[in-house]
């Protein structure tokens, strides 16, 4: 396969991923949580512990905006900061018990929608999807892991 063609296929795939992600999460409502805060909580959930800089980079937000949103989430007791024991200037962010509970509820709603998407997939289709996701993760999204 031509590498340019593969690149175009990858761009189309990532665009579709963003669209499906939007559709799966668009109606997930958490009381008094903005969409930006939800995306931050989602990132923390799947990647914790993370630094504010990692959140800022992943969410395409300035560090001051990220810090402001993190402060709001900390005030609501959804996240907590953990000081690095080797470098006290550095800290990590992870979910509190309440934050974990909220994200489990959100993920349950998303899972329900996902199950609807794959309801007619055969066992072989599901195995193929799992294999493809593993290959993408290993070769494209986390090649140095």
TrEMBL record:
Pfam families cross-referenced by the UniProt entry: MarR_2
PANTHER family in the cross-refs: HTH-TYPE TRANSCRIPTIONAL REPRESSOR YETL, TRANSCRIPTIONAL REGULATOR, MARR FAMILY
Entry keywords, A to Z: DNA-binding
Location of the HTH marR-type domain: 3-138
Gene3D superfamilies the UniProt entry points to: Winged helix-like DNA-binding domain superfamily/Winged helix DNA-binding domain
InterPro entries noted in UniProt: ArsR-like_HTH, HTH_MarR-typ, MarR/SlyA-like, WH-like_DNA-bd_sf, WH_DNA-bd_sf
Sample GO molecular function, one term: DNA binding
Stored SMART domains: HTH_MARR (SM00347)
Keyword presence, DNA-binding: yes
Provenance organism: Lysinibacillus xylanilyticus
Any GO BP: response to stress
Coiled coil: none
PROSITE patterns found in the cross-reference section: HTH_MARR_2
Keyword Cell inner membrane among UniProt keywords: no
Listed name of the protein: MarR family transcriptional regulator
């Amino acid at each position: 396969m031509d590498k340019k063609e593969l690149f175009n296929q990858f761009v189309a795939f990532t665009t579709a991923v963003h669209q499906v992600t939007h559709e799966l999460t668009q109606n997930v409502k958490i009381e008094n949580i903005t969409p930006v805060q939800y995306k931050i909580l989602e990132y923390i959930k799947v990647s914790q512990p993370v630094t504010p800089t990692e959140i800022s980079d992943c969410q395409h937000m300035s560090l001051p905006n990220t810090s402001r949103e993190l402060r709001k989430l900390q005030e609501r007791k959804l996240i907590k900061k953990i000081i690095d024991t080797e470098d006290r200037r550095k800290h990590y962010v992870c979910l509190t018990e309440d934050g974990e509970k909220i994200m489990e509820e959100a993920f349950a709603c998303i899972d329900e929608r996902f199950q609807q998407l794959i309801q007619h997939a055969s066992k072989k289709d599901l195995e193929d999807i799992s294999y493809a996701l593993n290959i993408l993760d290993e070769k494209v999204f986390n090649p140095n892991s």
